[in-house]
Specification:
Elements lengths: L7 E4 L3 H12 L4 E4 L18 H5 L4 E4 L4 H10 L2 H4 L5 E4 L5 H13 L3 E4 L2 E2 L2 H5 L3 E6 L2 H11 L3 E7 L2 H31 L4 H8 L7 H11 L9 H17 L5 H18 L7 H9 L2
């Protein structure tokens, strides 16, 4: 179980990571921070970054990571010597959204160093992390997951234990794919409604009176109707997640035509200048090619 004196390290201080680290800091935990690029953390009320990865990880019993993708995770843990810097018996909690194949490889590499890997991706975006309402999938040894719970509870409302690290990665990709389906469908229907002479707001209001409209689709429609695309879940990250999902399906020889179409749609949205906008900006891509 976690001891008060256990050192905690946090790697990856993007929009989600810095907020997760701040939640740990508010709870009174001493967290040693490191990011692949230097950034100013004063606005978040956090201490300065450790100058190098090895210093942040030295003697850390618990290491949390929130990295962009497989490539960033591989660079940190293998190419930059992150795994070698971890002490035997430590626990690595990879909170990033990664591919199952990389998670399986990372778990094997960690095991060779006597490090326990917990794949712990989170479900939710900035509003959820700021209010500590994330749902967290925790794949790996149950004893380690239970011991990590006093840390994770500071930014996630619930933790879902899973037997294998790769299972957490698989489920997270399926969840994000469902989100992509709802966002794209919302965009398509709003554009179609306008084409047949209906107001999008009227459609949304009527859908709200039915069990058909999910909370995610409702928020997506509001973003689209108000043309508010401040990034909470950028298009470029959805492109990445859908690519991982397609690869997961390919490995099992599964046909996923809807997801393949969605991957092309969001890729086109990214290439049309919306890569860093919120995923709901996909409606602007719809408008551009439907009017062409």
């Amino acid at each position: 179980m976690m001891a008060v004196q256990d050192k905690i390290a946090f790697v990856g201080l993007g929009a989600m990571g810095v907020r997760m680290a701040r939640a740990l800091d508010r709870a009174g935990l001493v967290v040693h921070l490191w990011n692949r690029t230097q950034r100013d953390l004063e606005d978040f009320g956090l201490a300065k970054l450790c100058p190098d990865l090895a210093e942040a990880l030295h003697d850390a019993r618990w290491v949390l990571a929130m990295l962009r993708d497989d490539q960033a995770s591989r660079q940190v843990w293998l190419e930059h010597g992150g795994l070698e810097a971890l002490m035997p018996g430590s626990v690595l909690l990879e909170c990033s959204t990664l591919s199952p194949s990389w998670v399986e490889e990372l778990a094997r590499c960690a095991g060779l160093r006597n490090v326990t890997l917990l794949a712990a991706p989170v479900v939710g975006s900035l509003p959820q992390v700021e209010s500590c309402r994330l749902v967290q999938l925790v794949g790996g040894p149950l004893e380690a997951a239970q011991a990590a719970d006093p840390i994770l509870q500071h930014f996630s409302a619930s933790r879902v234990p899973l037997a294998q690290p790769a299972d957490a990665a698989r489920i997270k990709l399926l969840i994000n794919s469902m989100l992509a389906v709802q966002v794209a469908a919302s965009a398509e229907l709003l554009v179609l409604a306008e084409a047949v002479g209906l107001e999008g707001q009227v459609l949304q209001n009527l859908l709200r009176q039915t069990p058909t409209l999910s909370a995610s689709a409702d928020m997506a429609m509001s973003s689209m109707l108000n043309q508010q695309y401040e990034a909470r879940f950028p298009v470029e990250l959805m492109v990445k997640d859908l690519a991982y999902t397609l690869h997961m399906a390919e490995v099992k020889n599964q046909s996923v035509p809807i997801l393949a179409t969605l991957a092309g749609l969001f890729e086109g949205c990214a290439q049309s200048g919306h890569a860093r906008a919120n995923m709901t900006a996909v409606i602007e891509h719809y408008k551009s090619f439907l009017s062409a």
